[in-house]
């Protein structure tokens, strides 16, 4: 059974002329649209411009939405098309933001492991890892996992087939795992040397 669109009620009411529902949709997709376009490789300023244009089109054309996909897929599709028009195409060679050198974590040598883990799991660390992915992989992860779209709907927004989108998501997860391992290796390099007894105890606890 298909999942219900969480925006369906607001959309129906907005299409019927309910301004409160329309304003709710505008508020709801303001930041989300901007974040999506940033994941496509736009700067903050570019993302804000695309977001504004997207919301203008959404308000103007909401009566044309027929519910053939989730409403958010329709909105993100508009945003993606506007961005692609600005950039002509989404380059697979988008410059990546490199993971910083291990020296970034040099100050963590005397921290407890739990504190190191908390630091690595902070939102900015997650964003830093995502920023190291190619733009199309960031976008695919955002659409399928953060926005909970189907592979088919995400593919429509990205201009890919369902199968290609699935492969992109798979590649993104593999790349993220590699980046996480590198980050953990950095943490390991910055920790103070341990006695053989301590190292042996930790290995036993992890087995």
Task: Describe the overall structure.
By secondary structure, the protein is mainly α. It has 2 domains: 80 residues, Rna Polymerase Sigma Factor, Chain: A (Orthogonal Bundle); 104 residues, Winged helix-like DNA-binding domain superfamily/Winged helix DNA-binding domain (Arc Repressor Mutant, subunit A, Orthogonal Bundle). Helix 1 crosses helix 2.
Give the secondary structure arrangement, pairings included.
Elements: H1 8-15, H2 19-39, H3 44-61, H4 71-87, H5 113-120, H6 123-131, H7 135-146, H8 151-158, H9 162-190, H10 196-206
Helix pairs in contact: 1-2, 2-3, 2-4, 3-4, 4-8, 7-8, 7-9, 8-9
**Quaternary arrangement of the chains shown?**
single chain
As a percent range, the share of helical residues equals 55-70%
Low-confidence stretches: 92-114, 189-207
Which word captures the global form? Answer: globular
In brief:
The chain is mainly alpha-helical.
Write a concise keyword list for the protein shown above.
2 domains, Arc Repressor Mutant, subunit A, Rna Polymerase Sigma Factor, Chain: A
